[in-house]
Design a protein that fits this description.
The chain contains 17 helices and no strands. α1 runs antiparallel to α9, α3 packs antiparallel against α16 and α12 runs parallel beside α16. The longest helix has 40 residues. It comes from Dyadobacter luteus. One of its GO terms (biological process) is nitrate assimilation. One of its GO terms (molecular function) is nitrate transmembrane transporter activity.
Amino acid sequence: METTNKPLEKLNIFSFKGVQMRTFHLTWMAFFLCFFGWFGLAPLMTVIKTDLGLSKEQIGNIIIASVAATVVARIAIGKLCDSWGPRKTYSALMGICSIPVMTVGLVHSYEGFLLFRLAIGVIGASFVITQYHTSVMFDKKIVGTANAVAGGWGNLGGGITNMVMPLIFAGFVGAGYLPESAWRLAMIIPGVMLLVFAVLYYRFTKDTPAGNFEELSVINPKAAKTKGSLAIAAKDPRTWALFLAYGACFGIEITFDNIAALYFFENFNTTLALAGILAGTFGFMNLFARAVGGIVADKVGRKFGMIGKGRLLAALLAMEGIGIALFAQSGSIVVAVITMLAFAMFLKMANGVTYAIVPFINQKAIGSVSGIVGAGGNVGAVLAGFLFKSSSITYSQAFVYIGVAIACVAAIVALINFDKTTEIVPEVGSLETAEA
């Protein structure tokens, strides 16, 4: 039985009652599964490298491609959330992207693999739908917490994927398949899971607590959809400040996930197993750290308003930048781990705070704002990826440069007035023509 057709004012993570909590759980689960499709190939790259004869530069291009495709996809998906609704958008995204995930094993060349990696990268746009859907299901008093918990639990999929996919691969090898066949068969598993979940998402969620967009349109044609929402979002400087902020936190998170194990292995002569465990610790902090950011942001917002949230975000980014620079200068593995855990806390809290601000930028363009800001995370990852690909600087130097860049972004965010209450809305006469 549905408890209410309005956004919830309380997040009870143990409840599945009502469309709001059912959607909350299904959307973080969907995001979790999307990570399996998105990064399922990453822990199998050693086998794939041998099978396809890939060079270091080609692997670098593949890593960049996996996050570059998501930049455009997140902006487009955000627009679709505003105009088509999150229920249909998420179901379509999972259904369509399950195809390249299941069929990537058909390729036998670098060029083919690169194209499939680009196609699979589109599924990274799932984050935008998750944040949109929780934004409309929860009241402004609690939306930062809801967004942060859903995003953090979904991000856990990245860490779990690194553990589970090698086990699936090993299962196929144990069944008698050669490694060059086992990795191809292993990718069918996440593909099938995505396809099944696409149906479940369509069946058991709604676009808003009051109903789906098409239902609301019958009652009030202007109640659900917003045409020209991408232009609305792009005209607001606060959107681009958050774009930079998310690039400085989530963008660096993705980069660190890709490079951490190798960094510990090469700089501190650890075993591969220990390097993997230390790198995994960074990812597992998503279990609580991002949620803490959302919770603190909601509390600060109630007391100090949006200006307080903006200052909180700037402070967290500044501490993250300092922490990364200190990590790069660590002379021992103990100091490196301590500084990593410290900057990871600030980074993941900043992720949560960013999306505690997003829903308040413009109520008529939540999807487009979320899409642009989410794309910022991937732009940050791409730019950082080029630093680590460079042969002229060391990994430690790259981390120092990143720390300085994050501090600069923190200064920009501190100067932005997020308490601006006026919203840029399309003129009445342009409602029918703003969307191409």
